[in-house]
Amino acid sequence: MQRPQKGRHLEEAVRRLVRHHAALRLRFVFEHGEWRQYYAEEESARLVLHEDLSQTAKAEWTQAMASRAATHQAQLSLVRGPLFRIVHFSAGPLSAGWLLLIAHHLAVDAVSWRILLEDLDALCRQLEEGCELALPPRTASFQQWGLRLSEYAQTLVGAQQQPQSIKASPQLPADDPTAANTEADASTLVSTLEAAQTRALVHESSGAYRTHIPELLLAALGQVIGAWADTDTLLLDLEGHGRDHPFANLDLTRTVGWFTTLVPLSLHLPRERSPGNLIKAVKEQVRLSAGAGLDHSVRSWLLKGDAAAIPRAPILFNYLGHLDSADDPDALFRPLFQPVGSLRDPRNTRRYEWEINAAITAGRLSA
Questions:
Q1: Of 79, 102, 136, which closes a domain?
Q2: Is 294:242 a contact under the CB 8 Å cutoff?
Q3: How far apart are CA 103 and CA 85, in angstroms?
Q4: Are 300 and 307 in contact (CB under 8 A)?
Q5: Domain holding 52: CATH number?
Q6: How many beta carbons lie within 10 A of that of residue 358, not counting itself?
Q7: 86 and 225: one domain?
């Protein structure tokens, strides 16, 4: 936080935020062999918790915050709620402190975070100034989106699909291919470009072959994995933000929820892998799959179709874009990049062997 917030103001702002965005009140129940989601009318759980670091040595703040953050994240409940909560870490009365915003991924995506931060900022300012609390009008609800998806699914029943050439990837090298692939076994490696390198990637690198950033990153991934695994075929799932749709009169610009699409991509790497050849080959294949994410996801999950017939990809790739493109220097809240503990239950089985998430934050690309 850029300046201290009164506790009652913060709690009122968060209550209004959760009341305004229904996805933050989602609940999930398992009935008749499948999961069902619904909205709770009100959120009865405490939404703002406080952690005092004033008795903790400053050198230990980061470790203490990560440890306590992990505890709070584990307390979210799909069945009972809440799915959204804020923890205020304070180092004493003279410290503005830090806010940890916790949300289950089933309730939010990257676009949702931008909406929530803007609205939380607005509500806190209005409370500071004694103004009437007001947020911009809601756009389509997550429920309306789900209903339109169900209607769209029926239009695909019996419709001819575009032929796909999906070839299974060879087994990626592993120390023990038979070992359990759980979250407890996973490790994270972060690589970050310098600001100058990121500017070159964004503004200069795409010109020669008229490529987009994800295509360049996928070409680099294909080059590395192809040489490492000695393969000319790489199967991966491309994750998209899922907010592009063909539906008329369905505005999602201020809708909070997890919108996503997955589309399998079988990359055939050229025999001669000079940068130019590789970039052109990958670009052409990626663009052939463009726009297929929604249809594939609907067929796979609503119509129970494609997924069973397609080999499972060992790699997930997701380019999130510029996460700080709307950064406001006068904002009450600024992002702080530091450890926040485990984001997933260590007992969970991982779907992929590799998960690659790339984004530009503070002017630098990280993956």
A1: 136
A2: yes
A3: 7
A4: yes
A5: 3.30.559.10
A6: 18
A7: no
313: left (phi over 0), alpha (psi -120 to 50) or beta: beta
Rounded Cα gap, residues 222 and 280, in angstroms: 12
- As a whole number of angstroms, the distance between CA 239 and CA 275 comes to 24
59 close to 85: Cβ distance less than 8 angstroms:
no
Q: Answer with the one of 99, 119, 136 that is the final residue of a domain.
A: 136
356 is a domain residue: yes
- Pairing mode, if any, of strands 364-366 and 84-90? unpaired
Cα–Cα dist 169/267, whole Å: 9
Q: Is 350 found in the same domain as 226?
A: yes
Alpha-carbon gap, residue 63 to 71, rounded angstroms: 13
The CATH number of residue 361's host domain is: 3.30.559.30
Q: Classify residue 153: in a domain, yes or no.
A: no
Contact (Cβ atoms closer than 8 angstroms) between residue 110 and residue 323: yes
Q: Which domain holds residue 36?
A: 7-136
Residue-level pLDDT, tens digit, the chain, 367 residues? 556 667 789 999 999 999 999 999 999 999 999 899 999 999 988 999 999 998 889 889 989 999 999 999 999 999 999 999 999 998 877 677 889 999 999 999 989 999 999 999 999 999 999 999 999 999 999 889 989 988 888 888 866 565 556 777 778 888 888 888 899 988 889 999 999 999 999 888 877 788 999 999 999 999 999 999 999 988 999 998 888 888 888 999 999 999 888 888 888 999 888 888 999 999 998 888 776 777 777 877 777 765 556 788 899 999 998 886 455 677 788 777 788 888 888 899 999 999 999 999 888 999 9
Same domain for 104 and 231: no
17 and 132 both lie in a single domain: yes
Element spanning 272, H or E: none
- Is 142 part of any domain? no
- Dist. CA 282–CA 291, nearest whole Å: 16
Mapped onto helix, strand or coil, the DSSP state of residue 199 is helix
| Omega cis (within 30) before 82 | yes
- What is the Cα–Cα distance from 357 to 238, expressed in whole angstroms? 10
Residue 156 lies in a domain: no
